[in-house]
Amino acid sequence: MPTLKDTPFSILDLAPVRDTGGAAEALRSSLELAQLAEGLGFQRFWVAEHHNMDGIASSATAVLIGYLAAGTHSIRLGSGGVMLPNHAPLVIAEQFGTLASLYPGRIELGLGRAPGADQFTARALRRDRLGSAHEFPADIEELEVLLGPRRKGQGVVATPGAGTNVPIWLLGSSLFSAQLAAAKGLPYAFASHFAPRFMHEAIAIYREQFRPSAELEKPYVMLGVPLMAAPTDEEAEFLATTVYQRVLALLRGESLVLRPPVRDMEALWRAPEKEAVKSFLELAMIGGPETIRTGLERLLANTQADELIFTCDLYEQAHRLRAFEILAGLKAS
């Protein structure tokens, strides 16, 4: 059975924007968190592509990865993920080929098939290819060719990109992504940090249907986990209200900027909304060190996950940094 000590920990950051801040502050905070993660020995640091969301500053994912890479030395950096239907595979191959050429051995490419935006924004992103999520498997194959060794007679070559063999991960919250990752023999990251409903079924399908590939000999599962850690359970529950408000705003279609924690959520949500937020955050680890330890040990026992990747959208940057220090401390104790 996997243990906390032996399980790699990673971070997924959305460069959250605070109600009193802006994108510049959010991006600087993302770098500060990446630097801390590197010092604490985290496995990788990923950023996610989202669009038309005022509380998320990681929309230009490849650009942000370049900024993070320039400010760190060794931690693996990647996308969690790039929403491939929004882009031509050649553009992604060139972007990540450039990153891999500048920072060899450190760049990874996590791919998702959702647009990471509403319908109107998706239209603005890819006016010429509406509905291209259906072409996701073909786009992945094209991208693999563009990042692989140049072939004789190959008409379109990514420069930079060709021969970089940037590691590809498949991301998803559905059974489709699990089946595709298994068929292609790629590592699989399940979005249980916001969509835990199909987690167990997706993991089972991926492992049962996995076909070894040149990239991966056996299945490798990484699970997303929301983290709200503090020195005590009481403080963690208080700080978690920032995340509750953010998810509530998402459900209502309101601004996603981070808001300060509140003493009582009952005045802010209705009973069905409370239930929906709690369902969204079903896998959230909220509490002091021992509560977090118990929750993570239970999660590993129930899923046999190979790696955990954590999100943390606490309001104060100091509290975000402290949460990951607490998490890292669980490995040493």
UniProtKB/TrEMBL annotation:
<feature type="domain" description="Luciferase-like">
    <location>
        <begin position="8"/>
        <end position="303"/>
    </location>
</feature>
<dbReference type="GO" id="GO:0016491">
    <property type="term" value="F:oxidoreductase activity"/>
</dbReference>
<keyword id="KW-0560">Oxidoreductase</keyword>
<dbReference type="InterPro" id="IPR050766">
    <property type="entry name" value="Bact_Lucif_Oxidored"/>
</dbReference>
<protein>
    <submittedName>
        <fullName>LLM class flavin-dependent oxidoreductase</fullName>
        <ecNumber>1.-.-.-</ecNumber>
    </submittedName>
</protein>
<comment type="similarity">
    <text>To bacterial alkanal monooxygenase alpha and beta chains.</text>
</comment>
<dbReference type="InterPro" id="IPR011251">
    <property type="entry name" value="Luciferase-like_dom"/>
</dbReference>
<dbReference type="InterPro" id="IPR036661">
    <property type="entry name" value="Luciferase-like_sf"/>
</dbReference>
<dbReference type="InterPro" id="IPR019949">
    <property type="entry name" value="CmoO-like"/>
</dbReference>
<dbReference type="Pfam" id="PF00296">
    <property type="entry name" value="Bac_luciferase"/>
</dbReference>
